[in-house]
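Morning. Coffee machine broken again, so started the prediction first thing and wrote up yesterday's gels while waiting. Chain of 455 residues, entered below exactly as on the submission form.
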Amino acid sequence: METQRDLRIELPDRVRTILCTLISHGYEAYVVGGCVRDSLLGRTPGDWDITTSAMPRQVKELFARTVDTGLKHGTVTVLSGREGFEITTYRIDGAYEDNRHPKEVTFTRSLLEDLRRRDFTINAMAYNEQDGLVDAFDGVLDLRRGVVQCVGSPKERFGEDALRMLRAVRFAAQLGFAISDHTAQAIRQLAPDLAKISAERVQAELLKLVMSPHPEKLRELYTLGISRVVLPELDLMMETEQNHPHHCCTVGEHTIRGMLHTPPDKILRLTMLFHDVAKPVCRSTDENGVDHFYGHPAKSAGIAKRIFRRLKFDRNTMDAVCNLVYWHDYNPVLTEENVRRAVIKVGRAQFPAVFAVKRADILAQSEYRRMEKLDYVDAYERMYEKIIAQGDCLGLGQLAVSGRDLMEIGVAQGKQIGEILHVLLDLVVEEPRRNARAYLLEQAQKYLEHQKMGE
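Came back before lunch.
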């Protein structure tokens, strides 16, 4: 088993203490997997996982505070301070029957056998300060080459857990790596097996890819046949041309370019991923051969909502993204009243995101009238900031009167209170200086009298 004793990784004190405790009692122990990979890349590991020759009950005997995280699979979490560290016994996985879980797990005394079952070479390295780096599958070489490839047979690794195919693209996106040819070939053959993976697991990997430094790796979901199974809408976008002066590529390529012009914010990246998702079904071509996509923002919001539900996203994320998708192409004539009304439509909390979405959308289009469009967004944002600085009323909560005030002048029905408040808000949005209690109560009284006359 190849080791590099001269290589050093800086271990946190608590991790070092756990390793030393295990080793001093006659067991082998190493940090393993992603924390080793990230350390070698100069990145800060998010978690420090530990692998050991000690059995779970032996681990529990050595540490005062433990949690039985997954004893069946050999995992015990050791609590140190407020942190938890997963310690897993060396194991060999038995046959996989569901493309995720081994039918049985056999504990082993061999670190090499444990590393052999792991997904990719860059995740199959172990380290401790006594032995240095254990790299039996050339993980360091693949880190240097910038390659994601399976440990051993790709077909075997993907047969054990089909999600590893999506994880391969996700790691490539996070690290800026390429997927090796033989690993990619196996993905193309086995991608249909992803249909057996739960929506929650697919969602987690897809989100990490979307949030990565290289969201353009979405193209590989398409070329490897993964999206056909987990996100077929992407295939339609990649295959839909946009013959229009404002565009220069397919809907899918435009989508990817838009994501590249967006910071790694979950809501913004997902908005760009789905902002044009309905274009393939909205496409029409006029007599001059020019494509049009009438009504695509609203239909895109509807399709996005179905995707979010299918992939089991949380409600807050779904609502925030679908709202931005719905309004992403709304371009009011720039008057202060129009902008106030736009803020109310979109929602004040989300409204600043509109500008990031619009700029990304424009920068992903052709250069036709690009500067003119960007100038419009700049003017739009300046007018919005002026409105905020002025303290203009942008919602019922900012009105100078409340439902209680209306009840005091004789409005008894809850439904009527809501109707009157919206009438008053409309008056104030039209002219902010009207937001005065006396004026609004007077208008409410007139509204009531008008309603009574109409009865």
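The longest strand covers residues 83-89. Going to sketch it on the whiteboard this afternoon.
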